[in-house]
Structure formats: structure tokens, C-alpha cells
Amino acid sequence: MRRALLRTALVSLACLTAFAAGASSRRYVHPADRAEARIIPMYGNLPACEDPAVLGELTSWFNSREAKFWGPLQAVSYDRIGEIGFRSWGDDFIPRRFCSGRILLNDGTFHRVDYSVRENLGLFGLTWNVNWCVSGLDRNRAYAPDCKMARP
């Protein structure tokens, strides 16, 4: 009986502590919980926004999706590429480099493209990958409104 009461009291105390910690504006992160100290450490060593490998992967995924599902649009080139955030959500999250720029399509139109380069989310968690959204072409509204959810 005492053990059950003690266990209930400890659980209640843990819940109150977690609630109080979540209610504060800046959450304490134990050094062992940081991204660098995980089983698969993450250091934020990500390629730059304008890196040809990053833009190549973005082009490949965009062209593949358009050809398979939507129609004849293809990415031709990029300009005004720039970083808009790096680890914007804090050091204890998966490192991401947020980027934005313009993409020129084969129909002659420019669209804003928002993308993030994410560490350890590539094939088998061994490399980086790109998550992206082209403004005006988010047909399934996965990043609605107007690709806002692809930005930090």
C-alpha cells in the first residue's frame, strides 16, 4: 500500500515538474540530450544552400514529382538563393539549414522555392537530404499556406 502511494506521489511530482518546465519560455536541455550527444551524433555539418549537390537533389525530386503526377513542368535554374535560418528551432533538434530562392521553370515563370537541408535524414540516416516546397505548386497543400510550413 505504501509503495503504491509513494509511486503515485512520484509520478504526480514528475508530471508537475514536466509541466512547469514546459511552461517556461526557455526549456532546459541536459547536455546528454543535445543533438551532438545522441546515438547518432548530429553536428550541423550541412552543405550550403547554393551547393550544387543540394540544388541537384532539389531539381531531381521536383522534376520527378512533376513528371510522375502533375505534368510537363521542369526546373531549369535557380537564382537569389540564400540562407534564412540555421538550427532555428534550437540545438536539441535535428540540425536544419533553411534556404529560400527563386526557381525558373521550363514554361518561363519564376516561383519562390523554400527548402531545408536536414542532417542524418537521408538514406539509412547516413547523410543529409532536402525537404522543399515551390510556391504556387504545392498542389496537395502539404506546406500550406503558400509554403509557410517549409520555412523556419
Could you explain the architecture of this structure?
The chain is of the alpha+beta class and about 150 residues long. The protein is about 25% helix and about 25% strand. The protein is built from two helices and four strands; from the N terminus they run H-H-E-E-E-E. It has helices spanning about 1-25, 50-70; strands spanning about 75-85, 95-105, 110-120, 130-135. The protein has a four-stranded antiparallel sheet, covered by helices on one side. A hairpin with a 4-residue loop joins strand 2 (about 95-105) and strand 3 (about 110-120). The longest helix is centred in the first third of the chain and has 22 residues, at about 1-25. The radius of gyration is 21 Å and the shape is elongated. Mean pLDDT is about 80; it is low at about 20-25.
Nutshell version of this structure?
The chain is an alpha+beta fold.
How is the topology of this model organized?
Blueprint: H1 2-23, H2 52-70, E1 75-86, E2 96-105, E3 110-118, E4 129-134
Antiparallel strand pairs: 1-2, 2-3, 3-4
